[in-house]
TrEMBL record:
InterPro entries: Ig-like_dom, Ig-like_dom_sf, Ig-like_fold, Ig/MHC_CS, Ig_C1-set, MHC_class-I_related, MHC_I-like_Ag-recog, MHC_I-like_Ag-recog_sf
Stretches assigned to the Ig-like domain: 199-291
Source organism phylogeny: Eukaryota, Metazoa, Chordata, Craniata, Vertebrata
Keywords carried by this UniProt record: Glycoprotein, Immunoglobulin domain, Membrane, Signal, Transmembrane, Transmembrane helix
Presence of the UniProt keyword Membrane in the record: yes
Name of the featured protein: Major histocompatibility complex class I-related gene protein-like
Organism of this sequence: Huso huso
Length: 356
């Protein structure tokens, strides 16, 4: 059985970090012939990748700079046995499933799990497997049972339940080790995790794709911690839900977050009401309201006038070129008689008089 090593470096700060924090892993085994490693494992602390491992390597490596060398070594030594154990078991799960279904070609078997910790001490953990991208089987940590997501997975449920070593290791990691590593991270990174970075809000608009209305995009970015509330408000008081599309909170490269909320406004409502994007975040003393100012019809007229002026200039240039070309071709025509100069005209008159 895998045993957890004792972390050699202790952190003196022991204060709860705001929000929800997580330690998750994502692993995938792939059939041969794809050109990719047969097995890949990635560990994520919140939304930051902390380790990487694949079947071409001997051991996992750190992919983060938030731990110094000593802390990183202790952290990785604790996590490595579980990563290597998964490397042994997940490709085996792929082979068993492919053989059971008598499948050929390229197939994948994915393993995802981890734990979450709220600032009030609430704990959650999960473990699930997917075959070819479809839910296959999961492990209930509380009841210590494997649950088949589809009837086709019942055979593997019995196989896993008979594997007491795997079940015990999964239980040990998801009940104990995962939370110990997460709490250690939270305590050691308290200064970083307790920082508050206020968001930047930008409003953009575009023509709605499926209606005659306007899509107004409220883009909120650069904030930390992750928890944020973004709403569209009409006439300064009515919170809107209909006609609003919300994206997911996504991580930025600098360990802050971003979110988009899009409101679709009809031409009639645009004339009758005012709209603002309201943001509530831990970094703000009060809610931030950013009012949407629609593009004025006058501005659109200027744009249209500019386009027409440009078209007029292009047409004028084309017409001028055609006239010049016509005149030039006329000068080269055999039927064209150039106009006489004054000297030519006088000489011609004298010649006629002399002939007479």
């Amino acid at each position: 059985m895998i045993r957890m090593t004792v972390l050699g470096i202790l952190c003196w700060v022991h204060t709860a970090a705001a929000g929800t924090h997580s330690l998750h892993f994502f692993a995938v085994a792939t059939s041969e012939g794809t050109g990719f490693p047969k097995y890949v494992d990635v560990e994520m602390m919140d939304d930051v990748q902390i380790t990487y491992f694949d079947s071409t390597m001997k051991k996992p490596v750190l992919r983060t700079d938030w731990m110094n060398e000593t802390k990183g070594r202790e952290f990785l030594e604790t996590l490595t046995p579980y990563i290597l154990f998964s490397h042994k078991k997940i490709p085996q799960s792929l082979r068993n499933t492919v053989q059971h279904f008598n499948h050929t070609g390229v197939h994948t078997y994915q393993d995802a799990g981890g734990c979450e910790l709220d600032d009030d001490g609430t704990r959650r953990s999960y473990l699930s497997h997917t075959y070819d991208g479809m839910d296959f089987i999961s492990f209930d940590v509380e009841t210590m049972t494997w649950i088949a997501a589809v009837p086709q997975a019942v055979f593997y449920k019995h196989k896993l339940e008979a594997d007491t070593a795997w079940q015990q290791i999964s239980l040990d990691y998801h009940r104990r080790v995962c939370f110990q590593l997460l709490e250690w991270y939270l305590h050691c990174e308290m200064e970083t995790l307790q920082r508050k970075v206020h968001p930047a809000v930008t409003l953009m608009q575009r023509k709605a794709r499926e209606s005659a209305g306007t899509d107004v995009i409220c883009h909120v970015t650069g904030f930390y911690p992750r928890e944020v509330e973004v709403n569209w408000i009409r006439d300064g008081e009515a919170l809107l839900e209909e006609g609003v599309w919300s994206g997911e909170v996504l991580p930025n490269e600098d360990r802050t977050y971003q979110l988009r909320k899009i409101l679709t406004v009809s031409p009639e409502d645009q004339k009758k009401h005012s709209y603002s994007c309201q943001v509530d975040h831990a970094s703000l003393d009060e809610k931030m309201d950013v009012k949407w100012v629609p593009e004025a019809a006058l501005n659109m007229g200027f744009v249209a006038a500019g386009v027409l002026a440009a078209l007029g200039l292009i047409i004028a240039v084309i017409i001028g070129a055609l006239i010049w070309k016509k005149r030039a071709s006329g000068a080269r025509s055999p039927d064209y008689t150039p106009a006489q100069t004054k000297e030519q005209s006088d000489a011609s008159s004298n010649s006629i008089n002399n002939d007479r």
